[in-house]
Amino acid sequence: MKLAYTHPSGIVVAQARSVLELAGIDSVIRNEFASGAIGELAPIDAWPEVWVVRDRDCDAAIRLLEEAQKSVDEADWECALCGSASPATFEYCWHCGGDRPSG
Ligand SMILES: [Zn+2]
Q1: How far is the centre of ligand 1, averaged over its atoms, from the C-alpha of 85 (Å)?
Q2: Which stretches make up the RanBP2-type domain (predicted)?
Q3: Looking at residue 11, what is its pLDDT?
Q4: Centre of ligand 1 from the C-alpha of residue 99, in Å
Q5: Structurally, how many domains does the chain consist of?
Q6: Is residue 80 part of a domain?
Q7: Residues with CB under 5 A from ligand 1 (ion)
């Protein structure tokens, strides 16, 4: 088994695991219930972890998770008014100043 991913939020870790599941990569979560109460930061060694069952899947798993992370962080959004694509970091359309659609 190899550690592929860790994050302080159990929700994010569960999402990461479902990304792997969809890709047919077997994985398990460790430390799932180790984090502290809400609002309390768990020490890094208590973060929930995603472990890939087959070592040979590990590289693919890490790539998949990086791509999934990127698509969340950097996906362009399309302006409903003028149809221009703006970077994810823009709250308003670069072209016409229209509001970013929610969701
Ligand atoms: Zn626009």
Answers
A1: 8
A2: 73-102
A3: 85
A4: 8
A5: 1
A6: no
A7: 79, 81-82, 84, 93, 95-96, 98
- Range(s) of the domain holding residue 7: 2-75
CATH label of the domain that carries residue 68:
3.30.70
Asked whether residue 97 is domain-assigned, the answer is: no
- What is the chain's pLDDT, residue by residue, as a tens digit (103 residues)? 999 999 888 888 999 999 999 999 999 999 887 555 555 655 666 788 999 999 999 999 999 998 887 766 667 889 999 999 888 878 899 999 999 887 5
Is the C-alpha dihedral spanning 26, 27, 28, 32 positive or negative? negative
Answer whether 34's CB lies under 8 Å from 7's CB: no
Q: Please give the helix or strand (H or E) that residue 14 lies within, else none.
A: helix 10-22
Distance 88 CA to ligand 1 centre (A): 14
Q: Does residue 84 lie within any of the structural domains?
A: no
